[in-house]
Specification:
Helix content: over 70%
Oligomer: single chain
Largest sheet: none
Number of domains: 1
Distance between the termini: 105 Å
Structural class: mainly alpha
Number of helices: 18
CATH architecture: Up-down Bundle
Strand content: under 5%
CATH topology: Na+/H+ antiporter like fold
């Protein structure tokens, strides 16, 4: 397919993607789910798990194989903007007098599911077709553990904002813990990808490049961004252009050292100054990119998801175990850490529920692993299922907890007075 033929195919596919995503988001909204859940589900529905299954000819016409790389690149634009915003939000919520508890929750929320995921993957060796030939088993096991350790920080922030929880103890604690958890998980993911390359030189390149990037961003990037967004006399479109140039440079460099573009975007977001002008720039990068380009990433993920793999009973058992361990590790680990730090039960259980959502961030990691050749279609589909289940359950669990607490706080009926006994 030539570029001239690809262009109309791309525009037609985008129309289908946006309309289907909007319809599914509307349905999920009526069920109390945030928009990102609807976009995740729409991506799976447009893939071979449904659309490709019931109408394979139409699916091939709408999403030809040559179009997938284009959707990948377009989705990366949305992810870079989304991670840029996540990094900016990280700065806003990482320090709210919750350092000790947030650190404890983050460590538990990353360590427990990481260990459980590694153990599950090692136990499945030789029992299910989940490993890629030529990839060391410990690398695949570590990748499974890291993906289970991830928290969907952007979605977490959206749920907390939409439900008006930003000013609550558990809302602030979850944001601080989720931001730290994600930063740790991305560093661990970078280590797994470096180990997967099997080349010591690549590991040194990634580690050395990361240190170089951090130093340059701190010494030069932060002052440059502050100069761009706060310089008097500059128009808003000029501020946006300069910021995007820095953002894309960071995405390019971290991609080259195999930290991937999303990591560089997250770091640039953290380096942004906390001013009104910076706020306008961040909002400007969100509007079109998140509405138009992020759904393309979900569809690209959906095109690589084949739930037909669960016809294999061994894969089905592994998938069920992965979901259970993911929930037990993240929900249970964060709840236990919060309780050990002295948080009341109603705060600890909500922190566990919020931290359990993996959503978009796990899909990002899965696509990176798929592109790097670490995971096959079966393992990819299993971990997509984990992302869907843990994300979908968040809002209903929070709503149930709210109803339970309201019921407990409501006064019971007035006790009836005891009948008077006549004295004879």
């Amino acid at each position: 397919m030539t570029p001239v033929e690809l262009a109309p195919a791309f525009f037609a596919a985008v129309v289908v993607i946006l309309l289907v995503c909007r319809a599914v988001v509307a349905v999920c909204g009526r069920l109390g789910q945030p928009p990102v859940v609807g976009e995740m589900i729409a991506g799976v529905l447009l893939g071979p798990s449904l659309f490709g299954l019931i109408a394979p000819t139409a699916s091939d016409a709408v999403f030809p194989a040559e179009l997938k790389p284009v959707l990948y690149v377009a989705g990366q634009l949305g992810l870079v903007a989304l991670m840029f915003h996540a990094g900016y939000e990280f700065r806003a919520h990482a320090g709210r007098g919750l350092v000790g508890t947030a650190l404890a929750v983050s460590v538990a929320g990353a360590t427990v599911p990481l260990v459980l995921g590694v153990g599950l993957a090692l136990a499945a060796r030789g029992r299910a077709d989940l490993f890629v030939d030529g990839v060391p088993v410990p690398v695949t096991a570590a990748f499974v553990g890291v993906t289970l350790a991830i928290t969907a920080f952007p979605m977490l922030a959206r749920i907390i904002t939409e439900r008006g929880l930003a000013g609550t103890r558990y809302g602030s604690l979850s944001l601080a813990s989720g931001a730290t958890d994600d930063a740790v998980a991305w560093i661990l993911l970078a280590g797994v990808l470096s180990a997967a390359s099997g080349r010591p030189g690549q590991v040194l390149t990634t580690v050395g490049g990361s240190l170089f990037f951090a130093v340059v961003l701190y010494l030069a990037g932060r002052p440059l961004l502050a100069w761009i967004v706060d310089r008097p006399g500059l128009r808003d479109d000029t501020r946006l252009l300069g910021t995007v140039a820095v953002l894309f440079c960071a995405a390019w460099f971290t991609d080259r050292i195999q930290l991937y573009a999303v990591f560089g975007a997250f770091c640039v977001g953290m380096a942004m100054p906390r001013t009104e002008a910076a706020e306008r720039v961040v909002r400007a990068t969100q509007s079109v990119t998140q509405v138009v380009f992020v759904p393309m990433f979900f569809v690209y993920s959906g095109l690589n998801t084949r739930f037909s793999v669960f016809a294999d009973p061994r894969v089905l058992v592994f998938g069920a175990a992965a979901v259970l361990l993911a929930v037990a590790g993240k929900f249970g680990g964060c709840w236990a850490a919060a309780r050990l730090r002295g948080e009341p039960p109603h705060v600890a259980v909500r922190v566990g529920a919020l931290m359990n959502a993996r959503g978009l961030m796990q899909l990002v990691a899965l696509n990176i692993g798929l592109a790097a050749g670490i995971v096959n279609q079966s393992l990819f589909s299993v971990l997509v299922l984990v992302a869907l289940v843990t994300t979908v359950m968040t809002s209903p669990v929070l709503s149930w907890l709210d109803r339970r607490d309201r019921t407990r706080s409501e006064p019971g009926p007035e006790p009836r007075p005891a009948p008077q006994t006549a004295v004879r």
